[in-house]
Amino acid sequence: MAADKDAAFVLPRGATGFFRPKDGPLPEVDQRTFRTARYAAARAAKGHVGQVEEQAYPRTFHTATVVASAGEHVVLCHAHQPWIAFAEELRGWYTAELLAPPPWAHAFADLGFAVLGRVRLTTPLADIDLGPHPGRMA
User: Fold this and answer.
1) CA–CA dist 26, 100 (Å, integer)
2) CA–CA separation, 120 vs 92, rounded Å?
3) pLDDT per residue over 33-46, tens digit each?
4) Are 113 and 83 in contact (CB under 8 A)?
5) Which pLDDT tens digit goes with each residue over 47-80?
């Protein structure tokens, strides 16, 4: 699985979904790669892919479910960064409801996604590296 260690977490351009038009469009996560990864994850979980919903404003993530004998898992895929997270239920937003990655989450990492755990995703903004980066105001 991709590292989700204690190293400083850098918030790259596009992570929040906000951008300045003069900086150009935000990067996009490849939908085909996400589709391939979720089917690989479903196979690894000995289950199947359930619901899939592409990102729509104001959300910055795509959602999918993987249904296995252990239950349904919600997969969140950031629309602008190759990041994967997991939640208990489908919602329009998430805060503390994020979960630790299931054992089969490696299927996403194997295809280039960073699998983020609950600790990383609930890190206070003050503990995240926000600068300086190109296009960011000092």
Assistant:
1) 28
2) 20
3) 999 999 999 999 99
4) yes
5) 999 999 999 888 889 999 999 988 899 999 999 8
Instruction: State the Cα–Cα distance between residues 4 and 114, nearest whole angstrom.
Output: 8
Neighbours of 35 (CB within 10 A): 15
d(CA 49, CA 73): 10
**Tokens representing 35?**
């589709």
CB 29 within 8 A of CB 92: no
The β-bridge partners of 48 are 67
Q: Which of the 8 DSSP states describes residue 138?
A: -
* Residue 61 CB neighbours (<10 A): 22
Could you write out the DSSP letters of every residue in 38-102? HHHHHHHTTSEEEEEE---TT--EEEEEEEETTEEEEEEEESSS-EEEEESS--S--STTEEPPP
Contacts (Cβ under 8 Å, ≥6 apart) of 124: none
Determine the distance from the C-alpha atom of residue 34 to the mean position of all C-alpha atoms in its chain, rounded to a whole number: 10
Report pTM: 0.78
Which residues sit opposite 87 in a β-bridge? 74, 98
